[in-house]
Inverse folding.
């Protein structure tokens, strides 16, 4: 058995995919035009799969702040937060984030992935238990694995199943770390936060909520804010790479022990820190988010409009309207045909294959932005309708 | 405390409900390939197994579980630790 034998199955799947002519995992954005348009494969596309929820990637103030920071502080920090990589701007961003969430402290990480990896692996070890929603993001699974803790799944968005598992833990539940997300990245559904918080109050433990896809989308701060569960939640993680249009991640908490993560988290210590331009644009984007509720209103108008449009086509969607709108398909050929059909009509969406999807389905995953115009939303819906018709015609032939 | 054979019998009964085709589940049945289900479906089946025994199976033990017999051994350990 060679070093590469393990790739055989993946290689075969990739070869089969290549033979269809579709290249869903090799899309190259040749030139960005705006927050919602780009040149892909020589053609202008509406981008409907970017997680750019508030459309801030080209916001003039964010761009200017990033440009000024590059000139003043250089292109990168070239070091770890533990060594030469903590600039005054990192501390300022941490203060901004802590104040924004109304929490005692914050730690920023170089990416959202690293935030979950860094927090979970530092907070828990082999003597601890982490209880996670089965549909949690890979960064949460990887953080759990890195921690060495005992990891138990509960059924997706099923607070009764969580309670059952906490009960089974007995006295260990009091020290367990429960992990859930605000909005789930694949189907756009949100966690039953009140019920999850109630289970935590009944059995004990600590609660961590990842607001990666809900920050700036549900209220200003995410699901914990709109469900008024601030006091039940011990840690909130998230990313700057979606609503805030940059990159980086964070964790906030009222617990003073959060500070100890800085000296115990390998994903915090052993990587270069966020570069100054990213910090600068993130800080401005956070201010824009707070003073521009109309962006969120526009985002939800767009989300509801596209959800209704795709529902009318008879597509199987996630359980509720959300800026993440995924059409679930059971047939890979149909998924590939529709994805290619959308691309041919100038619409890019994400194509997601199992096992990264719930229920083993193939997903045409759209993410809507406040920056999409109503006309663009209607073009996306029309492209779905036309691609669907083409597929029905070709499969009937 | 339940014996290994008692646990195995009950486990086979739960898994049999989810096996595809004419598969007859026994101790040497491979959980992934022989049951005719993919890895995501297997994780769902394990939730049913957990409920049948009123126990949670940590994800950490799964990398070493290939057969029904392997899973039965882990269940016996977990049930023993609970008592």
């Amino acid at each position: 058995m060679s070093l590469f034998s393990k790739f055989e199955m993946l290689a075969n799947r990739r070869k089969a995919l290549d033979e269809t002519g579709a290249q869903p995992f090799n899309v190259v954005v040749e030139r960005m035009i705006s927050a919602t348009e780009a040149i892909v494969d020589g053609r202008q596309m509406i981008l409907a799969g970017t997680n750019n929820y508030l459309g801030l990637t080209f916001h003039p103030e964010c761009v200017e702040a990033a440009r000024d920071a590059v000139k003043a502080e250089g292109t990168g920090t070239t070091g770890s937060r533990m060594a030469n990589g903590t600039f005054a701007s990192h501390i300022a961003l941490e203060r901004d984030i802590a104040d924004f969430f109304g929490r005692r402290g914050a730690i920023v990480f170089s990416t959202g992935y690293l935030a979950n990896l860094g927090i979970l692996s530092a907070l828990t070890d082999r003597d601890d238990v982490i209880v996670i929603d089965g549909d949690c993001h890979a960064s949460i699974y990887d953080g759990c694995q890195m921690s060495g803790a005992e990891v138990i799944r509960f059924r997706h968005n099923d607070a009764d199943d969580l309670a059952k598992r906490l009960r089974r833990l007995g006295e260990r539940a009091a020290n367990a770390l429960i992990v859930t997300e605000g909005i789930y990245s694949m189907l756009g559904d949100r966690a039953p936060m009140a019920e999850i918080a109630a289970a935590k109050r009944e059995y004990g433990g600590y609660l961590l909520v990842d607001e990666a896809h809900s920050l700036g989308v549900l209220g200003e701060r995410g699901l914990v804010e709109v469900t008024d569960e601030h006091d039940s939640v011990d840690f909130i993680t998230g990313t700057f790479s979606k609503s805030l249009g940059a990159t980086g991640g964070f964790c906030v908490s009222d617990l003073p022990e959060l500070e100890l993560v800085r000296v115990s988290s390998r994903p915090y210590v052993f990587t270069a820190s966020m570069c100054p331009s990213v910090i600068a644009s993130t800080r401005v984007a956070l201010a824009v988010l707070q003073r521009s509720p109309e962006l969120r209103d526009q985002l939800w108008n767009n989300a509801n409009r596209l959800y209704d449009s795709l529902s009318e086509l008879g597509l199987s969607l996630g359980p509720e309207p959300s800026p993440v709108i995924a059409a679930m398909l059971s047939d890979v050929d149909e998924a590939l045909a529709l994805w290619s059909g959308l691309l041919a009509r100038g619409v890019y969406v994400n194509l997601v294959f199992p096992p990264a999807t719930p229920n083993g389905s193939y997903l045409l995953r759209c993410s809507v932005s406040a920056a999409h115009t109503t006309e663009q939303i209607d073009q996306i819906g029309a492209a779905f309708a036309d691609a669907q018709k083409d597929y029905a015609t070709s499969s009937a032939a | 405390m339940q014996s290994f054979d008692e646990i195995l019998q009950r486990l086979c009964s739960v898994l049999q409900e989810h096996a595809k085709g004419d598969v007859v589940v026994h101790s040497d049945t491979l959980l992934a390939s022989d049951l005719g289900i993919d890895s995501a479906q297997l994780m769902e089946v394990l939730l049913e197994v957990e409920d049948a025994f009123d126990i949670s199976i940590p994800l950490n033990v799964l990398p070493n579980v290939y057969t029904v017999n392997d899973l039965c051994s882990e269940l016996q350990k977990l049930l023993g630790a609970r008592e």
